[in-house]
Specification:
By secondary structure, the protein is mainly alpha-helical. About 65% of the residues lie in helices and about 5% in strands. Helix 2 packs across helix 9 and helix 14 packs antiparallel against helix 15. The two termini are about 40 Å apart.
Length: about 400
Amino acid sequence: MSAPVPPDATRTSYSTLVARELRKDRLAMLGLKAVIGLVALAIGAPLLVSNQPFLLRDASGLWSPWLRGLFDRLVFESAVDIFFNLLLLLAPFVALGAWALGRAKPELAAKRGRFLRGMGWVFVAVFCALAPERFGSLENPLHYSHQVQNYRIVASEARAAGHPLFAVFPPHPFSYKETDPTRSLLAPGAEHWLGTDTEGRDVFARMLYGTRISLSIGIVAVGLYVLIGIVVGALAGFFGGWIDSLLSRLIEIMICFPTFFLILTLAALIRERSIFHVMFIIGITSWTGVARLVRAEFLKHKGLEYVQAARALGIPVRRIIFGHILPNASAPVLVSATFGIASAILVESSLAFLGIGDPTVASWGETLNDGRLEQRLWLILGPGLAIFFVVTVFNLVGEGLRDALDPKLRR
């Protein structure tokens, strides 16, 4: 009996080829590392900036106001902060579990992917339990709040009275929501690294927590309009005929409206705006480009042999669209989504700059507007450079991904 033929050692997956090409682009890899660093800063913001001490010894004993404050809605009002704080709390356990399974026996190491998927569902379930204020007519007991103290001031007063408290603070002991009219428009210094704004809020703290808002806006809004664009474009390209004509006319009508002015109009109609309203508005007004890309890819792919074979085998249409054609037509969508994140961040900053964003969150555009009104250089340079940096690194990643996905450019 002949020996078994060894597998082809030169065969590599498509994702491996794309990753290999992407690694050759130094600017794209630099941008990708910068994006990873921004995500790490967004998750670890409470470790760097907070007026709640990690450890405090007072009359009630030794405890952690910082840990209790992570999910206190008077400390962190926005659900975006709750999301990132939950990531901060669970990430070390997930990383430790994945590392332990990777170091274990092969039969256990193979279960690492299942463990990560399971932890992802656990995270979603816990967040959905923490975020809502009410479930119908019932109050959510996990949506809690306690009396909040500025422990930096408490510790300072105790020290002045000759009874110092034992307290371990983050490196920058300020809250992004903490106002102090006596510290209004202070220039950058040893205490306030990037100065303060018109309400006496620490600009460095607001810049750091603004990273969470910018990344959330980019990812959620782009995810929403990519989903809408994929559905509309796939239906138009696959079925053709009157469905294609109807959906194509809808796309053309949406393109006729100036997107930013449409966003301004919708945002102005909402009485009590939140960050999720901004995400939703950007998502439902920006899907036309993705829809046109997907439609063109489906028109190209639906006549190829693998689609005809799937139809001949009687595979359901839904499975052909989303299981066969869409994975092969997703490369332009992926590139468009990467560039779209940078565009969504610019739109949110523009809305906040014009005063129609969410006033309860730390937005770079709001700080930039304060700098324009007060003519303070530190209020202009900080958020201006942050917006420029984030948009640039996402564009670098998008350009590198576009070149890596193009077979004609592979070396």
